[in-house]
Amino acid sequence: MGLVPAKEKFGIHLEQTQMxxxxxxxxxxxxxxxxxxxxxxxxxxxxxxxxxxxxIVKFCDRLRSGGWYDASRQxxxxxxxxxxxxxxxxxxxxxxxxxxxxxxSYKEASETRFWLKLCKYSEELPYEEGMxxxxxxxxxxxxxxxxxxxxxxxx
Length: 155
What we know:
By secondary structure, the protein is mostly helical. It is about 65% helix and about 0% strand. The chain contains five helices and no strands. The protein has helices spanning about 5-10, 45-65, 70-90, 95-120, 130-155. It is elongated, with a radius of gyration of 18 Å.
């Protein structure tokens, strides 16, 4: 039996964006990323975690620019891992695998929360307002998905 994507098994919808013009295959900068590729999939947790990862990348650049290499590396790893595990969960092999991947994402979000709090409350480190609140939104959605997936697993 072949693998069935999580979107079909669990009702997760990850829409794919298609290019509209043949010349878009090179993208505006010749980097292979079309200008018209949208980051919005319609899946709340996938979209929120991807947008959060983009903010993490920019913020980590600020940390590195200030000489905070270790904090930048740790925050980059955990902050982008949140979305990476959510994205990977969309292709889970089973409901248990789906839940497991989301639990890993939740743990990475907890580590990210630590690093962001350290930045916020440290006088030496920079901080970007709203990041902890955005992360909490992601944690809340993850928690609801994990709980409902567990409940649906027992039915």
